[in-house]
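Friendly challenge for the regulars: who can give me the structure tokens for this chain first? No prize, just bragging rights.
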Amino acid sequence: MRMAYKNLPLVDPTSKEVFMSTLYSLIEKKSYLIESDNNSCFVLRILSLFNEPRSCQAIEAIWAKSTSELVRANCIYAMTNLENLYWLRDKKSSYTAMTSFEKRAFICSSFFLVDEGNHWRKSTKSQFNEFEDIIVKWVASKNPFVSKWKLPL
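First reply, four minutes later:
Bragging rights claimed.
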């Protein structure tokens, strides 16, 4: 999966389509190959490279199936990097029910919601702990909306 993440954008379109179709099939069939958190996270990284409806559907399927904080946080990062703002807006309402990893991922993602994210952070700031305040400052320093910076995944 690491090799695919690194090299898939460089291969010809036909090979990429074959690989992605196989990956989508593994997700749809709930294959044991992507059951582990580590493998799921690498799958999410690959899916985040290709902004297409099937990638978003696959990420949503992984989110719905997983109880892992790590995997769900990576789902938030992947959807952010795909600029799936509708999905992020939908998750905003369940922020208080998120785990600490998910909350931190969502705080980072909120910068991509621009004004809406800014208003949300201002209204939610009182719930942030010291570490989350540091995260806000770090992502703000990247100025992601202007610089087209992507969340590290």
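The CA atoms of residues 91 and 140 lie 21 Å apart. The first helix runs from residue 2 to 7. Your move, everyone else.
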